User: Fold this.
Amino acid sequence: MRVQGAHLRTIRETEDHRGLMVIDQTLLPDRLEQVRILTLAECARAITGMVVRGAPLIGVTAAYGLALGLRDDPSDAGMELARRTLLATRPTAVNLRWAVDRVAAVARERPLFERAGAAWREAGRLAEEDVAVCEAIGRHGAALLRGVVRRGTELEVLTHCNAGWLATVDWGTALAPVYALHDAGVPVHVWVSETRPRNQGLLTAWELGQHGVPHTLIVDNAAGHLLQRGRVDVCVTGADRVTSSGDVCNKIGTYLKALAAREAGVPFFAAVPSSTIDWSIPLGSTIPIEERAAAEVDRTGEFEVFNPGFDVTPASLVRGLITERGVCDASPVGLSRLFPERAA
Amino acid sequence: MRVQGAHLRTIRETEDHRGLMVIDQTLLPDRLEQVRILTLAECARAITGMVVRGAPLIGVTAAYGLALGLRDDPSDAGMELARRTLLATRPTAVNLRWAVDRVAAVARERPLFERAGAAWREAGRLAEEDVAVCEAIGRHGAALLRGVVRRGTELEVLTHCNAGWLATVDWGTALAPVYALHDAGVPVHVWVSETRPRNQGLLTAWELGQHGVPHTLIVDNAAGHLLQRGRVDVCVTGADRVTSSGDVCNKIGTYLKALAAREAGVPFFAAVPSSTIDWSIPLGSTIPIEERAAAEVDRTGEFEVFNPGFDVTPASLVRGLITERGVCDASPVGLSRLFPERAA
Assistant:
């Protein structure tokens, strides 16, 4: 959205509403290019190949993907095949399942010939809701972070991976409060960890630069040193799944930052749309952790590699969750106060 | 040493004893090549450019560098200039200062025409001592790690950066106990973190592979997840400087691993020759932390970068120090028991 003044979203419908245009995030920050997605298969490949990434954006993309699948085969069997294809793309982010199931539920109520259209419109609503949810996270998060600002100095924020507008339809989750503060004239500086092995930190640095927010790139290893030396006021990340007890599953390396934040007495927050909360499981240790290709770590193929994509930060290390309804403790009580309809 | 059965050292004198042959570590693991060093300037450039790296090896190289400087100008002024040139190459590792000062002290006792020769021979002694010291660290460390081995499973070791034979003249510090155990038939597997931004983990993976020690490469971000999931029995790293109270300054990212180790109840050890102990300062927070070039992190030059080369792991996170005299607590008492002659 903040690209050279023009309003750009990570995902939008083509003018004929027959397909999608998405920013190819594998080319950023070198080149800003959009690619067209016209089929379920293309959609699944875009998610697996991380052309689109970020839990909320994966959810929206998969929602459209189900609609594309229903165009080819609107039967129950076709819908189930499309659903499974999409769920198999990335196992950790729960938004994907949430989005696909929501669109499937709408389609299932309709006669076969109306299913694809209804699903497409529901995916569109989901995309618009994502924008509104991220705006609300920005608002609540900014109010929270104002409380951390020390008089006379800029607010020093540490983030990990990319949870900006590139990870959502617009605005972002962890970066939405940063943008809101910056736009309100509060001086903010962001420490951006590069986030090996995929270097999504470069996406964060790029989008902060587009928006004019001061920032500095560090290697992931440097986060502990910065926190220890008092150079960070607050940590804010996104999440790929939050359990009903407040455990936060997010990009690999988040846990190390949360440990160092606690040691330094620096609050650690996760910014999460409610679609990221998995009410079905309490313990983060039961979340499936995606293991990705060795080639992401070692291009030569010479070495044995273990490449987990995510880790779990226990709720005890999380000061709070920033959601579209406000901020709550990362605990069953905190979450059930904010989402009473989901409390068991 | 363990390259295809042939005995190879990281640094050796040329046959005419006029210069040095060192392995160019910037080319590893792709290519194993040696380069010749004939002058003080070449020596300083090799250290700055990380052709040679690792605190012990930097010390030995700088010791020879002083001798090379004295060949051109054996006066007190010439010696002081050479000393300052070498001390300016890398500010964090204390072995460098220790080695240069030891060689300078020997040279200073001699008439001008004998200084270069005496310094060269002293550097040679220092190199041989380094080998013996690392062998002793291997012996003491192996005895220590045998106590961690769980019956029926292989010992899972996590290390960071490269503290193997490539970081010393031979054997290594942190990896010396691993080699000793492996050679004694104890099943060992090493988790190797890649160590951004310079990827010295690839050096570790390469030398473990040459020696036949099973190992797996991970991104630095993955260490917390492994520790949390119980897949690491012990952490062992080297160090660039240890204070008299046991604070451990080592490659950036070490601190994060030590935090995660404590959280998981996994012991964290640093393997250090006594030349790495800086008896002049008690607090790690006063150690100068080298800030290296932005280009190590971001080749494009597009982003603002902060690139500290080292961090400090407080003694409270360190279970013990493995030295050539044995293992001691990372505390003033522990260190002064092992080194009573240095106790104030």
Notes: Residues 112-146 of chain B form the longest helix (35 residues). Residues 92 and 236 of chain B are 20 Å apart (CA to CA). The two ends of chain B are 39 Å apart (CA to CA). The longest strand of chain B covers residues 155-160.
